[in-house]
């Protein structure tokens, strides 16, 4: 996960400060030295690190901090504020044209993920903002670029406009006209990239920009390439005057230095971040929330938003009523597992909780095969059996095992897990915190929670 190494090193530096009742300037400077090294190891630009440390030091050696009852917390607060400002201060919104369609031009180097992330962004605007986007295939050079856009367009149920291998400027113009005629209020232009920045590429992109006058030019950069991402951002900004950045593969870079450097170097904000390969794994970039996650303070707001997007509110109310009446069924059990799985890996969720590092749950993930087996077993039952597992005698269990391609022992294991969960929910809905809850959940394990009979985590 992004910033994991940085988070651990900053936590270690702050831990040393917390051990001191009062701080001297020497204590602060020692902590700043460790913060400087942590940022450089995270692949943050040297110039940015130097300026950041100077600003934090200036505020941290003030009398208000050194004489405070909890100076370490004051310094953490200052670092949090400066990290937030470094990444842009507040979330930057996508500019929407007053006269539709809003044209969004996706640019970047080849391999950064323009095609996929342009489609992801269109899907996000459709789902969260009720827009009717159109994807336009303006990359006529990369083999299968048009086909790739059509595939992701079908998966997201978003129309794709293409004219084959003709002039990209003509395609962009025609796409905007097509959108006006067919009621599409947003057009996402998937432009060509190169393996490196060259004048031919920039000339073509300038021509497309002049032809359609986009409301937004978004640069897609790969977080995995570190400082090269910052260099690419500067080159594209100098040539096109970009409006913002989409940072991809942030889930795969444990350093994350590009996210901390781009705004400071280019002056242009990171607007969206790609957090995985799935087509719904793109998020609005919130500098304040990211700063909190870096400092181990969690990101509860993003966790709530993620839950709201993945959990059906009506189903949640129905489930609440069932729990209150102790009518939690195997179908409900399966529905909850499936919705939790859609929220992503347990490590990602853990990283949003205050005081919990993603590495704490390293190796703990939803077992796909076990979930599939569980689904097959539950779906092989009749509705009556799902509502009342007590009906399941040995002959019924054999039938279910045969129908799901499993063994009777697998059916029995699932039923045992379900019984334990029912017992736990009864204790909760009774208004009392079960005394043995800690014992049941156990200490963190590798691949499972002890006492839960091998639940599919």
Let me know the largest β-sheet: 8 strands, mixed
**Percent strand:** 5-15%
Helix run count: 21
Q: Kindly provide the radius of gyration, computed on alpha-carbon positions and rounded to a whole number of angstroms.
A: 26 Å
The overall strand count is: 8
- End-to-end separation in angstroms reads 19 Å
Element string (H = helix, E = strand): HHHHHEHEHEHEHEHEHEEHHHHHHHHHH
Quaternary state, please? single chain
- Going by helix content, strand content and strand pairing, the class is alpha/beta
Strand line-up across the major sheet: 3-2-4-1-5-6-7-8
**Arithmetic mean of pLDDT:** 77
Poorly predicted parts: 431-457
Outline, from the CA principal axes? flat
Explain this structure.
This protein has helices at 4-18, 25-41, 46-60, 63-66, 71-86, 114-129, 145-156, 168-182, 199-212, 227-240, 257-266, 287-294, 300-310, 313-324, 330-342, 346-350, 368-379, 383-387, 394-404, 408-429, 437-441, and strands at 102-107, 133-137, 160-161, 186-190, 216-222, 244-248, 270-274, 282-284. A hairpin with a 7-residue loop joins strand 7 (270-274) and strand 8. An 8-stranded mixed β-sheet has the order 3-2-4-1-5-6-7-8, sandwiched between helices. It starts with a helix and ends in a 16-residue tail after the last helix. It is an alpha/beta fold and 457 residues long. The protein contains 21 helices and 8 strands.
